[in-house]
């Protein structure tokens, strides 16, 4: 996992969810691929996906339950998980919040 991105465009307008408890910024690469860099405050959330996603944990800790899964799995800084397209996933973000990078896989 690289610490920096080169040759990108940043969308200035923030993506804000759950009354401001989850925020992110979209970055666009020269090839048109997109990622979001964001932060989630402690809380319980559910997100839906269109395309498959790769979620990389940059800091903090969260429990994740993917659609159809029976168990919650804990992820911490340096770990990542894949989310299928056209699905939902639930998150329980621990105290201190979670810093993340979401890659949209096409």
TrEMBL record:
Do you know which SUPFAM superfamilies this protein is assigned to? RmlC-like cupins (SSF51182)
* Keyword set includes Transferase: yes
Q: Name one GO cellular component term.
A: cytosol
InterPro entries (UniProt xref): Ppnp, RmlC-like_jellyroll, RmlC_Cupin_sf
Top-level taxon of the source organism: Bacteria
Enzyme class comes to transferase
Q: Which GO terms describe its molecular function?
A: purine-nucleoside phosphorylase activity; pyrimidine-nucleoside phosphorylase activity
- Pfam families for this protein: Ppnp
E.C. number, please?
2.4.2.1, 2.4.2.2
> Known catalysed reaction(s)?
guanosine + phosphate = alpha-D-ribose 1-phosphate + guanine; a purine D-ribonucleoside + phosphate = a purine nucleobase + alpha-D-ribose 1-phosphate; uridine + phosphate = alpha-D-ribose 1-phosphate + uracil; xanthosine + phosphate = alpha-D-ribose 1-phosphate + xanthine
Q: Which UniProt keywords apply?
A: Glycosyltransferase, Transferase
Function comment:
Catalyzes the phosphorolysis of diverse nucleosides, yielding D-ribose 1-phosphate and the respective free bases. Can use uridine, adenosine, guanosine, cytidine, thymidine, inosine and xanthosine as substrates. Also catalyzes the reverse reactions.
Q: Which family does it belong to?
A: Belongs to the nucleoside phosphorylase PpnP family.
Protein's name in the database: Pyrimidine/purine nucleoside phosphorylase
- The coding gene here is ppnP
């Amino acid at each position: 996992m690289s610490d920096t991105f080169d040759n990108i465009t940043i969308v200035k307008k923030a993506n804000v969810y759950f009354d401001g408890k989850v925020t992110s910024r979209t970055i666009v690469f020269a090839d048109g691929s997109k990622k979001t860099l964001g932060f989630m405050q402690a809380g319980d959330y559910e997100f839906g996906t269109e395309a498959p996603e790769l979620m990389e944990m940059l800091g903090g800790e969260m429990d994740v339950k993917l659609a159809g899964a029976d168990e919650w799995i804990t992820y911490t800084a340096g770990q990542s998980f894949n989310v299928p397209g056209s699905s939902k996933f639930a998150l329980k973000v621990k105290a201190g919040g979670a810093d993340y990078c979401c890659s949209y896989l096409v």
